[in-house]
Amino acid sequence: MSHNLNIASIRNDFPILNEVVNGKQLVYFDNAATTQKPRLVLDALAGYYEHYNANIHRGIHHLAEKATSAFEQSRKRLQAFLNAEHSEEIIFTYGTTDGINLVASAYGRKFLKEGDEVIISTMEHHSNIVPWQMLCEEKGCILKVIPINDEGELLMDEYEKLLTERTKFVSVVHVSNALGTINPIKEIIAKAHAVGAKVLIDGAQASSHIQINVQDLDCDFYSLSLHKIYGPTGMGILYGKRDLLNAMPPYRGGGEMIKEVTFAKTTYNELPYKFEAGTPNIADVVAAKFALDYVDALGKPNIAAYENELLAYATEAVKEIEGLRIIGQAKEKVSVLSFVIDGIHHQDIGVLLDQQGIAVRTGHHCTQPLMNRFNITGTSRASFAVYNTTEEIDKLIQGLHKVKRMLG
Ligand code: PMP
């Protein structure tokens, strides 16, 4: 697959790429943690605060109406982005973590009972482990874990063996942040549905690389963060099937999520507001639309094709670093290169690369059980986005040679 992107022009859209770090031009390879934001997203944020900052839904004045309209346009934009059937299936959250907690809490507490089983996988981010552990502890449910192979791929046969009539919920990551593995979620969802279980997909890492179609996937819930898709921090969305969302109790109580409040009884608002208590991150929601417009203008297949080129280039290039081992060699993976180097601590690699202006992430990447599976305490991770280049990867390789010379 080839792309038709003008990378030099794309780089110009991201002002932060001109930053100088430790005397060197910034090389930003920490995109799996958060992507940088294009100028039009920054302008949208400033434009909101400069021209129509107001609280939404409750006001009748001009600014409130303008802010409400922009906020709801973002919802429609996200509906299209995921191909959801109804706009009220898009719930604004504070991010992937918040969406998963919403489902574990509101769906889990109402519909799961003692002895029921929840399945997650070995490669989950802590945000898709801990909420389910908390639920299982509270309700007396059993948490089961799909194992993986040494390449970092789910063992689908083992998954099938875990599925029983007691399985009530399956919650798996679409793309692993620590390995880059793309999981076969359509198959995972179909198999879970065959035993009557509901499925949540943690889409935090997938949504910037892969076209998501929630109707085709038939997932019950899909949670993501906009800050990983060139959008602002502090906001994300939870997609949920309308019937399920309607059947769930609210997650948080407060303003906006109610129909009528008396001291005797409160009735709840309709979707999506039932799940949106309090004042949301209005500016960030409004600006998120522009991030999605940006991504769609480039075209996700183009972005993926280019990022795959970068990944292939980097995967080949790191072979010249003696003692370097890639963690996560799945056949299907996104542009995440996680690695360890014999005898050198990942944190030292991160510090020395930073001295050369190169930003990578080091540590357990909020996936401690996954690190345990590979008998390591952490990795160094370079994760590539559409504005990265092969020249930057060359700098990474030079940087790693320097690390080896100093510490190897
Ligand atoms: N799941 C995965 C796979 C992630 O990579 C992340 C972010 N690192 C999260 C969940 C949590 O996302 P957030 O911190 O935006 O809530």
TrEMBL record:
Cofactor(s) the protein needs: pyridoxal 5'-phosphate
UniProt-listed Enzyme Commission number(s): 2.8.1.7
Gene Ontology molecular function: cysteine desulfurase activity; lyase activity; pyridoxal phosphate binding
Top enzyme category: transferase
Its biological purpose: Catalyzes the removal of elemental sulfur and selenium atoms from L-cysteine, L-cystine, L-selenocysteine, and L-selenocystine to produce L-alanine.
Pfam families reported in the protein's UniProt record: Aminotran_5 (PF00266)
InterPro entries, A to Z: Aminotrans_V_dom, Cys_dSase_SufS, Cysteine_dSase, PyrdxlP-dep_Trfase, PyrdxlP-dep_Trfase_major, PyrdxlP-dep_Trfase_small
CDD domains per UniProt: SufS_like
Organism lineage: Bacteria, Pseudomonadati, Bacteroidota, Cytophagia, Cytophagales
Domain of life: Bacteria
Name of the protein in question: Probable cysteine desulfurase
Gene3D superfamilies: Aspartate Aminotransferase, domain 1 (3.90.1150.10), Type I PLP-dependent aspartate aminotransferase-like (Major domain) (3.40.640.10)
Reactions catalysed: (sulfur carrier)-H + L-cysteine = (sulfur carrier)-SH + L-alanine
Native source species: Dyadobacter soli
UniProt keyword annotations, A-Z: Lyase, Pyridoxal phosphate, Transferase
Keyword Cell inner membrane: no
PANTHER family the record matches: CYSTEINE DESULFURASE (PTHR43586), CYSTEINE DESULFURASE 1, CHLOROPLASTIC (PTHR43586:SF8)
UniProt record similarity statement: Belongs to the class-V pyridoxal-phosphate-dependent aminotransferase family. Csd subfamily.
NCBIfam families documented for this protein: sufS
